[in-house]
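FAQ: What does a multi-protein file look like?

Like this. Sequence, then tokens, then the next protein.
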Amino acid sequence: MAIWARFKRLMRSIFGGAISAMENPKLVLEQNIRDLNDQVPKMNETIAQVKAAEIRSERALKHAKGREAALTSRIKAALRSGNRDAARNWALQLEKARSEVQQITAQLQQAKQAYAKAQQVKEVFMRDRQRKIDEAQHALRAHERAKMQSKVAGVLEQFEVAGVDQTHDEMISRIEEDTARNEARMEVALDSVDTETLRLEQDAESWHADELVRQFEMEMKQETLGDPTASVDPESTPTEKSMGLDSQGTQPTPLRRAR
């Protein structure tokens, strides 16, 4: 017997697990809602049968009381007429009729109690049914929201896997690294330039240009005033004097740039 019980338990565990794995909670809840709605007509039919029994008992009681009243009247009429034998027969029937009235009265009371109990059961059932339907519908709506959220999450995961998020930070880091490297190269290049020497050369060139301009201004002033005391070499031209030729006709050595 113990082996058979273990075997049945094993079969229940195998098939029960398979059935549980195949069950879809959404479909099961929808079927439960349909089952609960289908039970309402069955309950109404049962309550109608209980009510019909009450109605039949009321009719039977009414008929029994009418027969009781009729027998009572016959007995009284027979006694008034002096027919005791008829009165005795009807008296026995009246006793049965009164017993029947008591029985039907008890049945009617039971039928009324059964109908009231059925109404209470229906009220409890309808309240519990509505509660279960509301819970099932709430769970189904939550299930639909979860499905939608799962779809949205899948779409977002696809965007992330597409490579944008994976390469975004890497590309920014590489650009920042290249920018920093180029800025460092620029600073190193600027540090390597002899800016002081360059400034001195620029100052020397500016001074030399100023001297040339002053020489041109002096020559132009002498030509305008016509000064006869000006010592001008007839063999030299203004261009040569402007270029700074000496008395031997050779060009002096240009100023050496300051370093």
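And here is the next protein:
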Amino acid sequence: MNLHRLLLQRAADGKPLRVALIGAGKFGSMFLAQVRRTPGIHVVAVADLDPQRARAGLARVGWPEEQHQAKSPAEAAKTGRTAVADDALAVIGNDAVEIVIDATGDPAAGIRHALACCEHGKHIVMVNVEADALAGPLLARRATQAGVAYSLAYGDQPALICEMADWARAAGFEVVAAGKGTQYLPSYHESTPETVWDYYGFTPETVAKGDFNAQMFNSFLDGTKSAIEMAAVANATGLTPAPEGLSFPPCGVDDLPRMLRPRSEGGLLHHRGQVEVISSLGRDGSPVARDLRWGVYITFAADSDYVRRCFLEYGLVTDESGNYAAMYKPHHLIGLELGISVASVGLRGEPTGAPTGFRGDVVSVAKRDLKPGESLDGEGGYTVRGKLMPARDSLACGGLPIGLAHGVELTRAVRKGATVTWRDITAPDSEAAHLRLRMEEEFAAVWGIRRLPSATVK
């Protein structure tokens, strides 16, 4: 509340929040479409590996060409215009920048940019949930040590779920389950970029006319993106995955209180305080009534006779016991809502969700039998998919995080459906890999887990 009032005051004082956007893809473009209509925020720079793509994106969302002709963030801050650049690290280091949005979608890039923000004292809004799932707990700790905010991105589903969980807890309710909706069938786990369009119902002509990335679309379909997003939710809220990971039960919004309660009380949950994704399709492929494909939800408990009566009196849909109710939001508008995070970190120093621990992890699982010498192709590809696991279980088995499963070579065979481990690969010699291993070592020591030896770094 009151963010708009505070932004208006910033605008009136001539001291707008100075923001740099890294990555001018779909999420970034949607943010750019709204930010020109938002008082008190000034995008001083847009950084993209392809500056022409960034300029084309700005034009597509209605920015006049003269608006993005500044030569540097410093010049932009003085003139009210925007600079377009290809060097993200130089932009982060510029004194004119206060807040950095990473919308690259590349986990290694996200980690690099977050560490640079800590070094230069810049708040970071991490749209890049892939980076957050890979090393968010350690990045958030580094940000706190540096005195800056590390925030999940409002508009994306994890931050919206964090907001709902915070509402429930601040009102004194226990959050029983939290998650999102998606379209899911078990066969989707085997989907590849070659098969993905059939599942979406896109014809070759449709694909040829659009700007479609088959691997990206496939990461949503094969369950990887759901796993990544629920890992972010678990790490930010304290909720935890079931031991078996996500089960994607078919469920409509009216059935949330009945189904998203513990098994011991007739529901589907392994435990209270669980993350779960629900499907808009029945297992036979039929549509679920009043599905939540585009939205998010929480279920919460009354846990007293008086509150159960209040639920009844005020018309809440509950399970048959009257103890469990749900709240849901039917949509998420990704970049169109991102200004909420920018305002929150810039005006209050408060994230719209951030990791507070390491509770969920996303490991790589073989989509088919894999042979020594094969190269993994990462999220949404032909070789592996991401599976959500409790973080302790992931460290105990040495699971290879999906965020590092791109361009690495197998040294051992891995059977279809098996978890790929660090011991099965030649580990990459990269900043992201080293940071991730450091995080694993720190948490394993705290938990008393004796980790098996990892593969040797190149």
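Q: Is there any per-entry metadata?
A: Some entries carry free-text notes. For the entry above: The chain is about 35% helix and 15% strand.
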